[in-house]
Amino acid sequence: MKRNMAFSHYCLAGLLLLGLSSCAKLPSGSSGQQSGGAKAVALPVGLMRLPQPQVAPPVNRDNPAIVSVELETKVVTALMADGVGYTYWTYNGTVPGPMIRVRQGDTVELTLKNSLDSPVSHSIDSHGVTGPGGGGKLTQTLPGGTSVFRFKALNPGVYIYHCATPMIPHHISHGLYGLMVVEPPKGWPKVDREFYIMQGDFYLSGDPTQPGMHEAVVDKMLKEEPDYVVFNGSVGALSEENALRANVGETVRVFFGVGGPNTTSSVHLIGEIFDRVYPEGASEPLSNVQSHLVPAGAAAIFEVKLDVPGTYILVDHSLARLHKGAAAFLTVEGPENPAVFQSVVNTSPSISGGHSSYSHCVGMPGLRSGRFSGENDEYHVIDAVCRLCTTGTDPTTIWQRWFSNSLLRAISKVSVASAANNAGANSGKDQSR
Ligand SMILES: [Cu+2]
């Protein structure tokens, strides 16, 4: 009862914000306030990750125009991580939703359809809209309904759009966000490649590492304790065959937004320095930036010329989130550039194997205590990572495998178990297995 009252309170706040007369109920499929207890439902056969949204091409237009944009909110079931399914609410079936790209001065006619299959109402509030609610009030749309509104894109920049139906952060935490890019009249300087990345935080019912289907939950979201913090909708969405790709000598531009609902992002590209960052998509760029803070509900433009081949990792430098999935991989191909970067000497002896050899590599409690048993325990999981490490595999490759295989989930799970064991050891409990 207390929880229901809490929900009503937040719902009321949303209603007041939007001036609405009714409040959408949580869907029967959503676990609402509950985060634990129930066992996860088995995954549908053949469940995949969400498809990736495309970068919209530059506008290349000399004059303002009327631009039609059509979005449809729909439920999509897909993988958050290997073996971990999630019920997403999406714009057009991707997280983030489609990139809307227009020119300053354009008039945008935005049509929002809400699929008949949707369990609740949805809407859209674009931060690039001038007018009350950013469209959030005008577009409250029931399942099976359609709403249309027009706005003039007055300010150039890069803006978040998101669902603004109460309970708003609960809707956002299903994946209902995207970017609207409003180009200045002459556009931005030409670059060789553009990428579209958005960070989001997700809160799963039950044990988030447990195989099976999971729903979005409210209680963890209100505590701001995400299970997953990811780029483009899932762990490993931008790794291995879906990694970003470029060539040495090219300049790339990243449109980067944070859908949230809660986390901010300290955006950093490991091994590179951003030549230019347009903070919040502002008209005046910063130069030579190592990490740049992007708030929740905001976006920025990052540009970098790539001088050295190899694999680079884009991270949120609040690095615990790396272990929750926040990494995108950029593979750069081309000739080596020793004038800029080269190894001179590394005296590390080669490591042939053996449990003790790895203890320096990952100082986890179980490794130090030497308690190993079973093929899914901590040692065997860490061993799988360290074996790659000690055979000279490029660490970024290891990370990609970590994300694209089940290792991330497995390590999360054993880390939790290990911490629990450690707590037990400290309290004098029997630690024998
Ligand atoms: Cu919604």
Describe this protein's structure:
This protein is of the alpha+beta class and 433 residues long. 18% of the residues lie in helices and 30% in strands. The strands form four sheets. It has a six-stranded mixed sheet, with no helix packed on it. The two termini are 42 Å apart. The structure holds copper (II) ion. Copper (II) ion is lined by residues 122, 163, 165, 171, 176.
List the helices and strands and how they pair.
Elements: H1 2-18, E1 66-81, E2 84-91, E3 100-103, E4 107-114, E5 125-126, E6 146-152, E7 157-162, H2 168-172, E8 177-183, E9 193-202, E10 212-214, H3 218-223, E11 228-231, E12 244-247, E13 251-260, E14 265-270, E15 274-278, E16 286-289, E17 291-294, E18 298-305, E19 310-316, E20 327-333, H4 355-358, H5 365-369, H6 378-390, H7 395-404, H8 407-426
Parallel strand pairs: 1-4, 2-10, 3-8, 9-13, 12-20
Antiparallel strand pairs: 1-2, 4-6, 5-7, 7-8, 9-11, 13-18, 14-17, 14-19, 15-16, 15-18, 19-20
Protein name: Copper-containing nitrite reductase
Signal peptide: 1-24
Keywords: Copper, Metal-binding, Oxidoreductase, Repeat, Signal
